[in-house]
Design a protein that fits this description.
Largest sheet: 6 strands, mixed
Helix content: 25-40%
Distance between the termini: 69 Å
Strand content: 15-25%
Length: 1580
């Protein structure tokens, strides 16, 4: 890549969604804004193309294990993208709505708090407050003898506490050490049992060390047991007291006892209360872990309990339904408990079911709800066998409805919540942690009180901390990380938040700023940040902070791409890209790009017209006046609302404004909306937030909240179904004469139900091919060709159009088509009015943008008959909307108001606020600084009072039309700018060259990992730097343990928390600071492993893509006959019969038993036929065929005694006899579907005209021969695992997928012949070759083979992504000189150089820019020719715009470096300093270091004066060496001298010396030693 290209991101042929093969160039290291009308393709370009491809390329550099947890990295539809960096997306959808998530957890500050308290916290007794200290074994013994004298006791050593794993190895080791029992998950088991533990479940394991009665005589034994438990349990011991209960089987009673454990700690325990604190580890302070969570509320801070008030209606009797948790059928919700139980309960306890609930005695109510017996509840008695409860009731034992519901709530939560009362946890008072965790303090705070402080207060606390020297040393990195993160949050304006604030209560703006702060904190450079409308939810005052943050990211050397409609953000951009000109299928073009002036001057740019003032959103000439009707909220006190009173006038357009976090959503959504819902629907479970009262609710008869949530979750939902316009259209088609004649009802014209839809694709029109780690591929259904309906349905026409044609129409086309039908036309006209004329009626709702979904909902409302008393609530409806769309939205909202309704909007957008009739502003700040009513009035009133919102409104209002004059002023300042020629596929970036050079060098300060001496280092960016020095001087400590560890960690922090758990984490390096870091990738010569299962194809992942290809487009054949397997759907089978048997009479049979095959049918033996005769008769069947002979079912009794039913008897069920002609097509299709159903996917066709001629059709791919022993059925659909020789599913069972055995003669497997797979999967072929045969090709041969494939259109579409990945990898392997390798060559035979070049090839293929590549001594094991190739490859990476850092000793490589860092001067304790840094020439000139002296030639490795002579009589002769790639080699090794074997990488050196010579010598020496050491038959 040229330097010019490295300064640009070049996108070629982007066609994701509605993009029209877009090509463009974007300047790197700039703030670029994508804008354009809603639905034009901005997000498709920025997120679905650029972001996805950038992240996909970086993630591919991670291990295959790590990638499986990161979700599918789908390859976008784009020809090529150059200049991409690793990408990070920052959007408003990242805040977790999990009730366990808080500001502290999502910013990971709370994780650092937990670590801080675990390392530096001071434990106290939770009961008496005394500082906790360690306990000695003697103190533990004395306490036990006081507390449990003469009681039986188990002494347990905790070995595993709440950890996942099987622990098979550990259990075996403990058994071998002499331990007999262990308590596993509360159950004592013998270690000699077969103990199977679930690998992915948490387990607790304690070794049973002793069991004894605590008596004076046993004291020394007891003390010894406690000491041993403390040693094994790392300072912890458990004493389990158990009373003597039963004389018989005392041991078993003791071990199974449910008495309490007593935990003792050698580390920390209260001397007076004898309370031992668990191990001080971070999870003790986590409310999401059982070790730290409050046991009562499980770490939620509140409890939800079933209460009488919620469950029962006091004014009803039990017979009238006083207990409200029963279904209409009389069952207790989700259980088998029904009215039989209620009747038995009332009868056995003499309770009158006619008495009102409130009149029942308290004891009776308690009995019904809570029961009188503590009964064990389980799936058996609650869900499956209710008679168990009835038996207990006969004995007057009852569990109670509430305990049963509590058990059910573990499985079904949502619907039962309305019967629960939520309150602050009584034990932890909402603090979420147990008393042990809260008893640990740090400088006057426990972890809860510290997290409860605001971010601003926390900043002050940590800055003013006076630390001891020990605290400084232990907490150095923790304190620095906490301070940095808190400061970044404070800088982006969320300092008012507390760390324990629930994430679910954060506004979108707060959530995004928190994410932005974390990215600022990472300090990365060379990253591509992509943001989706970051101004959403931000007040204008916050917008400046946001833009400042974006510019900070840019100025650190990053590229920032923003999808945005906000005017201020657009004006702040360095570069603009306008996409349009309209939304939907007619959009997807670049209308203009360049500077603001370019956009304004572009005639096609709608954005430019609004920016110039040619188009605008007008201020209304006259505002509506409030009516006398109003809703008043009194004493609103929800979240941060400060007991405010607020009046909301009805019948006008009201907007609520204020800074982010001021309380707008709390007031409107949290109180008003829920109160209205509850008023209109008293049975609703919605509970309004705290307030005194609300008056005026009677003035509203309907409340509707319209948001941008999707109108449907599946592709089956569309605008036609949502607006219900499809109903009258289906009615219309059912009234057509042909439809009436055929008896078609309206259901026939629905693709969601059986009848009229295509059954092959079930009405989807497409078939989705799952491609696992590639994006799924959708191909048109072969049967309906994408039209969703079957042939019969598509024979019904209205005005020459089918139902499919209608669904393919745009709203505009349909409005004209149905203009004469008012019932349909009025709905379509409404959709047209809201600007959706371009949307297709059948367009899947999942493809609609948020703004489009919102307008569909608006259209559905506008078409309804107005009541005049409807209250509409919109929460930030301008999200994702362009100026043009906002104007259209305001027109719709005003229509709703003009119908007499009330529209209330929560909004920041000034274009909406300026047209509102009345504004309500909350504030003045966010969080605890907000929650007040600042001002109420018209926009002019707010502007006059100059509130925070009013100041911005004033500017807009004073301009009047004035956005035009405002923009003209902007243009005047740009008059001197030379006009740029703007094209769709190019742009002139010369103006950016100087201003965008933000790249920073990598500056490391205070690195002290291992032996590094607190060194400071500067590494130039985008250069090839070599770190050298004597062995052990600290090179790897600097390059890998410091630079790489920090660079990778910072990027991976942008991934999901779930994904990061599986990626492994390098220890954080001890370093003061690192600035200028880029995302880091390490490439080393780590061994490819000696695993015989790994091959070149598996290592490069080519085999993974091949497996996917063979599973998806491979043609299965019979492994016995070699014939292709064929499968028929009912539709295809009917078409086959119509084509091959037209005019003939057929009998269709369903095989019930097929001799000689393994096909599973209805009968597993013909002798079972009598058992099904009666049910077949009841189902209307007439004939059964035994070995081809027909028997009527109604005559079965008279024939059955004469029949001999054996395993050789074929049994077929007669389905239908019919002539094959067009009139019988429907009957034929139904008969075949019935036959497939009865025959378990197998159909038998008999020609009545040709006796004895039969044919089988199988629903699953099969080859059914007349000789049934040759018949083969494909048991299940092909999957990639079937082609894996590393999986039991696909591997040859004889050789276990190895392909052979370790033996000299006939090493190949006799079954698979070395192809490693089962026979049925070796019979799957593409182009007449199976997957194993394909892998025998060399790299160029494999490429040519793929290029020769002839694929159908659907096959090409399915295979496109996988083929592209395979060809790309093959090409890169050729480029790095590995063309001689075969794909099936074992990875264990690859040299280190070959393995490294394979990894380097993948990195060159990624095409990433701005990455830091770190290599550890890459020239080890390389021939000089291969070293040149390696250096060429490294320079390619550098020239793309990456930094390349090498740890190296090779002088040729050192001389090629741009920059050299010499670590030394010695090794170990004598190293760890930077001896010299600079270019190789500069260091060589100074000649001060050991490296410099070798570079300059002052020091060299001396050559011997003469070589030792070779003795011809002392030779090791190797003959016929053929290991790996050796060609039957004969070679002599002289003894007694220094011999070197050399050659290019992969030439066979190691194969000759290690795999042949060394192994033979070891074998011979062992034999000699064995013979010499045998004396008189005894080994010495």
């Amino acid at each position: 890549m040229s330097q010019e290209k490295a300064e640009q991101i070049i996108v070629n042929g982007a066609s994701e969604h509605n993009l029209k093969n877009v090509s463009l160039s974007i300047p790197r290291d700039t703030l670029t804004v994508f804008t354009g009308v809603s639905g034009s393709g901005k997000s498709s370009l920025a997120f679905d193309t650029i972001f996805k491809e950038g992240q996909r390329r970086f993630i591919e550099s991670l291990s295959a294990y790590a990638r499986q947890f990161l979700g599918q990295s789908e390859k976008p539809k784009v020809e090529h993208i150059e200049g991409l960096s690793p990408t990070i997306s920052v959007d408003q959808k990242t805040v977790n709505r999990n009730p366990r998530s808080t500001v502290g957890t999502i910013t990971e500050i709370y994780d650092h708090y937990r670590l801080l308290f675990a390392r530096l916290g001071k434990p106290h007794c939770p009961e008496c407050g005394t500082r906790i200290s360690s306990q000695t074994p003697e103190q533990i013994t004395d306490y036990a003898y006081v507390d449990a004298l003469n009681e039986q006791c188990l002494i347990l050593a905790p070995m595993v506490r709440e950890r996942k794993g099987e622990y098979r190895k550990e259990l075996e080791e403990w058994a071998s050490e002499g331990y007999v029992r262990a308590r596993i998950d509360g159950e004592v088991r013998r270690l000699d049992e077969d103990i199977q533990l679930a690998r992915y479940e948490k387990h607790t394991i304690e070794l049973v060390l002793d069991r004894l009665t605590i008596t004076a005589q046993e004291k020394s034994r007891f003390t010894e047991g406690v000491e041993k438990a403390l040693v094994l349990g790392n300072g912890l011991a458990i004493l389990h007291y158990a009373k003597k209960i039963v004389a018989q089987d005392t041991e078993n009673e003791l071990e199974q006892s449910q008495q309490e454990d007593h935990l003792f700690s050698q580390l920390m325990a209260c001397p007076s209360c004898q309370i031992a604190l668990p191990e001080m580890e971070p999870r003790l302070f986590s409310f999401n872990a059982p070790q730290g969570a409050c046991p009562t509320c499980n770490g939620l801070g509140h409890t939800s309990t079933f209460t009488e008030e919620k469950l029962c209606d006091p004014d009803l009797s039990i017979s009238e339904g006083a207990v409200k948790c029963f279904t209409e059928k009389g069952n207790l919700l989700y259980t088998k408990v029904d009215q039989r139980h209620v009747s038995s309960l009332l009868k056995n306890f003499e309770i009158n079911d006619k008495t009102l609930w409130k009149d029942l005695a308290v004891e009776q109510r308690q009995l019904i709800l809570y029961g009188n017996t503590k009964m064990k509840l389980g799936v058996s008695n609650v869900f499956r066998f209710p008679a168990q409860f009835l038996n207990k009731l006969e004995k007057q034992q009852w569990a109670g409805f509430i305990p049963i519901l509590q058990f059910v709530f573990r499985f079904v939560k949502g619907p039962l919540e309305k019967f629960q009362h939520t309150s602050v946890c009584p034990d932890c008072a909402g603090k979420r942690l147990n008393k042990m965790a809260l008893a640990v303090s740090l400088h006057g705070h426990n972890i809860y009180s510290l997290a409860n402080e605001s971010i601003e207060a926390s900043v002050i606390f940590f800055e003013s901390l006076q630390l001891t020297e020990t605290e400084k040393k232990i907490g150095r990195d923790i304190f620095r990380e906490i301070r940095d993160r808190l400061n970044f949050l404070n800088d982006v304006g969320v300092g008012y938040l507390t760390l324990d604030r629930s994430a679910a209560t954060l506004s979108g703006g707060e959530g995004q700023r928190i994410r932005l702060a974390s990215q600022l904190g990472s300090g990365l450079q060379g990253v591509l940040y992509v943001l989706d409308e970051p101004s959403i939810g931000l007040h204008q005052s916050d917008n400046k902070k946001l833009i400042s943050t974006l510019k900070k990211l840019r100025d650190r050397g990053n590229t920032v791409l923003v999808v945005e409609h906000d005017e201020e953000t657009i004006e702040s951009a360095d570069h603009l890209v306008d996409i349009g000109p309209v939304a939907g299928q007619d959009g997807g073009h670049i209308t203009a790009q360049g500077s603001l002036k370019n956009i304004i001057e572009a005639p096609e740019s709608v954005t430019g017209q609004f920016l110039s003032g040619a188009e605008q959103i007008s201020i209304p000439e006259k505002r509506r006046l409030p009516s006398t009707k109003k809703i008043t909220i009194h004493g609103a006190n929800f979240n941060n609302l400060n007991n405010i009173n607020c009046e909301i006038p009805l019948g006008i357009f009201v907007a609520v404004a204020g800074v982010s976090g001021s309380g707008k959503s709390s007031l409107i959504d949290g109180i008003l909306n829920k109160a209205l819902i509850r008023h209109l629907n008293p049975s609703s479970k919605e509970v309004p937030g705290p307030h005194k009262k609300i008056s005026g609710l009677e003035n509203v008869d309907r409340v509707i909240k319209i948001d941008q949530a999707p109108i449907g979750r599946t592709p089956r939902s569309n605008p036609a179904t949502y607006t219900k316009v499809l109903d009258p259209i289906r009615d219309l088609f059912s009234l057509m004469p042909e439809a009436k004649a055929r008896g078609y009802k309206k259901g026939r014209f629905s693709f969601n139900v059986k009848g009229g839809r295509c059954e092959d694709c079930q009405g989807a029109g497409l078939k989705t091919i799952e491609m696992q780690f590639l994006s799924d591929v959708q191909i048109p259904c072969d049967s309906c060709r994408g039209r969703r309906f079957n042939t019969e349905t598509l024979q019904i026409f209205y005005k020459k159009r089918t139902i499919h044609d209608v669904l393919e129409m745009t709203v505009k086309e349909a409005e004209d088509f149905f203009s004469a039908l008012p019932k349909i036309h009025v709905v379509l006209q409404t959709l047209l009015d809201v600007g959706l004329g371009y949307v297709k009626l059948g367009q899947p709702s999942t493809t609609l943008s948020g703004g489009e979904a919102q307008r569909v909902k608006l259209a559905a409302e506008l078409r309804k008959t107005a009541t005049g008393n409807t209250f509409y609530i919109f929460d930030e409806p301008t999200t994702g909307l362009h100026f043009k769309d906002i104007r259209l939205l305001l027109t719709c909202l005003n229509r709703l108001v003009d119908q007499g309704n009330t529209v209330l909007v929560i909004e920041h957008n000034l274009d909406v606020l300026k047209v509102a009739d009345q504004l309500i502003e909350l504030g003045p700040g966010g969080g605890k600084y907000g929650g007040e009513l600042v001002c109420v009035g018209t926009p002019e009133d707010l502007a006059a009072q100059e509130t925070l919102t009013g100041k911005f409104l004033k500017t807009v209002l004073e301009k009047g039309e004035g956005q035009k004059s405002f923009k003209v002023k902007k243009l005047k300042s740009q008059e001197g700018i030379k006009s740029e020629k703007v094209e769709e596929d190019s742009a002139d970036f010369n103006s950016f060259r100087k201003s965008t050079n933000h790249a920073r060098d990598i500056i490391i300060k205070g690195a002290s990992k291992n032996n590094l001496r607190n060194i400071d280092v500067c590494i130039p960016n985008n250069k090839m730097t070599v770190i050298t020095g004597v062995s052990g001087s600290g090179k790897t400590s600097l390059a890998f343990d410091t630079i790489f560890a920090e660079g990778q960690a910072r990027y991976l922090e942008s991934l999901s928390t779930y994904a990061r758990r599986f990626l492994g984490r390098m220890d954080k390096a001890p370093v003061d600071s690192i600035d200028g870091l880029s995302p880091a990738i390490a490439i080393n010569q780590k061994s490819t492993g000696r695993n015989p299962r790994s091959t070149v194809a598996t290592t490069t992942e080519i085999y993974d893509y091949l497996r996917l290809l063979f599973a998806r487009i491979g043609k299965a054949h019979c492994p016995v006959t070699g014939k292709a397997l064929l499968g028929y759907s009912p539709t295809r089978a009917a078409a086959y019969c119509a084509e091959h048997y037209a005019g003939q009479r057929l009998e269709l049979l369903a095989p019930l038993y097929l001799p000689g095959t393994e096909k599973i049918l209805l009968l597993d033996h013909p002798k079972h036929l009598p058992n099904v005769i009666e049910s077949l008769k009841q189902d209307g069947f007439v004939r059964i065929y035994l070995n081809g002979k027909a028997i009527r079912l109604d005559e079965w009794e008279e024939h059955s005694s004469k029949l001999k039913l054996s395993k050789k008897t074929s049994v077929d069920l007669g389905i239908d006899r019919l002539n094959i002609n067009p009139e019988e097509q429907k009957r034929l299709a139904e008969a075949i579907e019935n036959a497939f159903q009865r025959g378990h996917g197998l159909l038998k066709i008999c020609l009545t005209d040709q006796a004895g001629k039969t044919e089988y059709l199988s629903e699953t791919p099969a080859n059914v021969e007349s000789d049934l022993s040759l018949t083969f059925f494909q048991q299940e659909e092909l999957t990639p695992r079937m082609f894996s020789f590393n999986s039991h599913v696909g591997a040859c069972p004889t050789c276990d997928g190895l392909g052979g055995f370790s033996r000299l003669h006939d090493p190949l497997c006799p079954d698979c012949g070395g192809e490693r797979l089962k026979a049925e999967y070796r019979a799957v072929k593409i182009n007449e070759r199976n997957i194993s045969q394909f892998c025998q090709f060399t790299i160029p041969e494999a490429r040519r083979e793929i290029e020769s494939w002839t694929l159908t259109e659907n096959q090409r579409k399915v295979a496109e992504q996988a083929l592209g990945e395979i060809l790309t990898r093959l090409s890169f392997l050729e480029n790095v000189g590995l063309e001689y390798l075969t794909l099936d060559q074992k990875a264990s035979t690859l040299s280190g150089g070959e393995a490294q070049r394979i990894r380097l090839a993948s990195q060159i293929g990624s095409g990433l820019v701005g990455v830091m590549y770190i290599l550890d001594e890459p020239t080890i094991g390389l021939h000089p020719r291969d070293t040149d190739r390696l250096l060429h490859t490294l320079k390619q990476l550098r020239d793309r715009g990456n930094s390349v850092i090498l740890v190296e000793h090779d002088l040729d490589t050192i001389r090629q470096a741009d920059h050299l860092i010499d670590i030394g001067p010695g090794a170990g304790h004598y190293g760890g300093n930077v001896s010299a840094s600079g270019s190789p020439a500069e260091i060589c000139a100074k000649n001060e270091t050991l490296t410099a002296q070798y570079l300059s030639g002052k020091k060299t490795i001396p050559l011997p004066e003469k070589c030792r002579p070779m003795n011809e009589e002392h030779l090791l002769a190797v003959s016929g060496a053929s290991a790996n790639n050796l060609k039957n080699l004969d070679v002599n090794f002289p003894l007694g001298i220094f011999t070197v074997v050399t050659g290019v990488s992969g030439s066979g050196k190691s194969s000759l010396v290690v795999d042949v010579l060394q192994r033979v010598l070891e074998k011979e020496i062992n034999i000699c030693f064995t013979n010499l050491s045998m004396i008189n038959g005894t080994y010495i």
